[in-house]
């Protein structure tokens, strides 16, 4: 996407908005000299991004050693159809955070992070579920990564064609894209007559301006 | 996501299906000893994935030197709501491809790759647009990465709770998610009375089984 018009956005508010809308980040780290990129859930609290997973996870154990990582979140907002093949592009918003992640080991701080995960993914869910017990907390590793070194890239707007191509009778414009929820599927063992919570039935993520 | 039940899928057909449904990949490489993860468009043709961009792009010039990369594509298919906070998860399909990318320099081979990009993003588009001219072909770098070293991870299915939690009156199940198109936005300078092509009006990506 980098050959197309983009603008760098270094404003913290824009970075936070992208992180808060995304669901999955891609974490890059170096293992035995080679790059590894793994998708994982995350949540932002203030000026930090949290990762979590099994304390036995190879990735988390590697990251918790304090190696350098790059955490990238990308929202695809639309496909940009130009009159020429060359000027096709995508509208997107992306954040990259560089740094080292450190373990959050204190139980109360871990709980704050786990609540943030839950509320980031499904706002309203946390108070409905059985909270983590001591065993589960111990089995869960939480890592924190500061946003100090982070940047955003955003492309919005219509295609930008060569002037000569604007006379073309080829349709041009944007196909807006958005991650949308469809009707929730109840687990087979849900108690009978249990209503679908409003935060599930009305679930949505943000939709971008083009 | 790695602490939850997943199954490794190494079947080439499953890998190809995930690559063909995704729009954006995350490319990881090592720059000055530190990992960098950048989102970019891609397309698969046979047993290769192609990347492209400006011949002046710093990322592409770095990659074209034959450094090791990890290219990861992730589709988020749903949020998995368990009765306990601990067993929440996501349904997803992800592919990681490891290897070195090499430049495609011959013009005809480049054109094949660029057509594949176009048809991967918007099937039906290629024959409607002005094809790349010599200058544009020269300004575009195309890289090919073999699928030889690739693997998939997939999580599907309902939440898996602790047996004791199934008596809970907490709703549990899946919120299915899918990247969906909304109504296309015509560019302001589109010729008057030009119809929206069917491949735009009916645009959709796949929807996953849960």
Please provide a written account of the structure.
The structure is a homodimer of 210-residue chains. By secondary structure, chain A is an alpha+beta fold. Chain A has a single domain, classed as Roll (Pnp Oxidase, Chain A). Chain A has helices spanning 12-21, 58-64, 107-121, 134-139, 198-201; strands at 7-9, 24-31, 34-41, 43-45, 48-54, 68-81, 89-100, 102-104, 140-146, 149-155, 173-181, 185-186. In chain A, the strands form two sheets. In chain A, strands 1, 2, 3, 6, 7, 10 and 11 form a seven-stranded antiparallel beta sheet that branches. Chain A has a four-stranded antiparallel beta sheet with strand order 4-5-9-8, sandwiched between helices. Chains A and B meet through strand 2, strand 3, strand 6, strand 7 and helix 3 of A and strand 2, strand 3, strand 6, strand 7 and helix 3 of B.
What is the CATH T-level topology of chain A?
Pnp Oxidase, Chain A
Could you state the order of secondary-structure elements of chain A as H and E?
EHEEEEHEEEHHEEEEH
How many strand segments of chain A? 12
Query: How many domains make up the 3D coordinates of chain A?
Result: 1
Fraction in helix of chain A: 10-25%
Biggest beta sheet summary of chain A = 7 strands, antiparallel
Helical element count of chain A? 5
Question: What is the CATH class of chain A?
Answer: Mainly Beta
**pLDDT < 50 stretches of chain A:** 1-5
